[in-house]
Amino acid sequence: MANTNDAGVEALRRLQQIDPPSLLAPNPSVSETARSASQYLFTTLRPFSPKSPLDELLVDGYDAEQIWHQIDLQSQPLLSTLRRRLNQFVKNPEEIAQFKVPLDVGKKLEKKKRVELEEEESDDFDEELDDDDDDFEGVEKKKAKGGSEGEDDFEEEDDEDEEGSEDEDDEEDEKEKVKGGGIEDKFLKIDELTEYLEKEEDNYEKGEERDEADEDSEEDDELEKAGEFEMDDEDDDDDDEEDEEAEDMGNVRYEDFFGGKNEKGSKRKDQLLEVSGDEDDMESTKQKKRTASTYEKQREKIQSKIVLMEKANIEPKTWTMQGEVTASKRPINSAFEVDLDFEHNVRPTPVITEEVTASIEEMIQKKIVEGLFNDVQRAPKLPSKAPREVKQLDDNKSGQGLADLYEQEYVQKTDPTSAPLSFKDELKNEASTLFKKICLKLDALSHFNFAPKPVIEDMSFQTNVPALAMEEIAPVAVSDAAMLAPEEVFDGKGDVKEEAELTQAERKRRRANKKRKFKAEAVNKLEKKARLEKKADNAISCQVDG
Amino acid sequence: MNGMKCIICCTMASSSMEVDNVLSEQKVLPPKPKFEPLKPHEMPGAAVQFRKVSVPPHRYTPLKKVWMDIYTPVFEQMKIDIRMNLKGRKVELKTRHDTPDISNLQKCADFVHAFMLGFDVIDAIAILRLDELYVESFEIKDVKTLRGDHLSRAIGRLSGKGGKTKFTIENASKTRIVIADTKIHILGSFANIKIARDSLCYLIMGSPAGKVYSKLRAVTSRMAERF
Q1: Contacts of A413 in chain B (CB under 8 A)
Q2: Section B71-98 average pLDDT
Q3: Residue A10 lies in a domain
Q4: Does pTM top 0.80 for this prediction?
């Protein structure tokens, strides 16, 4: 490995020295060097990308495109994790300070735990920050641990930093608060974490036996680890293995925490517990079994679901899904449990509530007040044709004899003009005659103009009719008002006043005139009387004399 | 008989015409003879013909009342001798020497017979005046067999209240109807008799009067429209 390393480094150096223009032309030696360099880089980066399917870069007989694709396969996840780690560092610059130079390997275990604790916290943080990138979680963790961007030096530095921080924490057992102070955020609270872990510890002890059986988990399960608070599965064996691994490798690597691909890793949670409680107790009691990571757990869930669904698909469907089902094909009273949906062709009966009644009554009252009754009105029948004359059936004994009847019929046939009056016509005639009589009388009352007597057509034999019928021009009715002359109507002169209109003076004058006249008459009478008496005396005297 | 005579004359005339044409030069035939219709007493059969119409007891008194109304038109206008055989309760009719037409006797006999059936004189007189008047008689049992109450009800339905229904049918169909217990006589022209008979049959069979009226109305209006 050292040879290849050196060769690789040499190749890299050589590449650096090549001037860029010469790269444009195809050069087999340059390509050879480039391939070896990339191979070296690939192999160095391989430990940090556990998910990559290739152990080494295959260059012999491979196209540039293919080599590039291999490199891409490895580097893409690496890049994303590095980016994330960088972002995290940008947000929490104090974390960078925690990366220190690694002191010694002997404290690897504790350091590892510290690192794992850190990582757990940071990874928890990561996870909280991240979306559902389950595939890359392991890598993330690795990266978080490494903290580099695909360069060994940076990785080493980070490791050293972490280990340094671990040392510090080792010295102070309960300096989790400081750590927490650095790592803690609004999402992560160490106190809550410890509480939860204690609870899970109890659960773990119950489930320990169960988990021992599941030691040989899949690669994916191994990748899903710390940060999952549900799983507390650990194995003491794994612990020991880890210790060995830690001792074997100089740097802290993925395998230190999560073990090899075939081994379960320890929970970082457990490291937290160790930090909080007695580390030794934790080590002894808890097994650092490879617990399932988040992704593994989810996959398990999905798998179980899949199994269930497949089983359901194989089995015959429930009766509700079977299409047309008669009562015999389904269990008794099963229709009650299912919410069946079918069309109701009938409008649902209206629920009579107080509001409904009130609304109806209100409507009725309003209509009464307005007088707006929607009485059904008969549609006017259009007059299609003139109404036919309906023959009236006469139920009286006919006055004419049968012979007369047939005679009439014959006459009607031969001479259409001499049609006898129908019943209706007779009534009409009677009505018109009466009306004419009345009109004559009314005219006589209202007009002084002469109106001739109305002609009443009456076919009857009148024996004593005079030969001539002279019209009288004299008016039927006469009034005196037309005859009198105006002075005859009114005899008087001047301004004639009513009794009420007269003034006091005029009344007096009138009375005075009356008295004067009366007096004059009285005087005349007396004179007449006197004369008569005189004559009588004379006569008597004459007689006496004579 | 007269008609037949005419036809014979015609044929003879035509043949004579042809003969005339053919033999125009040869001979001039005498003019076609014109024969007047035979008087009854000139007819080959018995010179005088009789008819005897028996008088039912319920028509005896009415006959006595209207005898002169019957006698006058028969004797003076129809020129038929008429007399009443009181003992035999018969009206006897005899042709005279100046009876113009042999059918007069039959007409008078029909007239008297119609009166005996129950028709009024003024109605029966129409037989004398018109040629085509007939009397049809039928019984209720011919239409529908009814007994007891049903029969009485049927008779009542036919007449109507105060004779209303009967008069309605008479007026509408220009006929005269006589309902004598279970016998029905209709006097009128052939078509009118049919109308009246149909209406009466409906009534016998149970139709209400209103329905019969509507039918009558329809029929008579149709008849009237025809002219």
Answers
A1: 227
A2: 93
A3: yes
A4: no
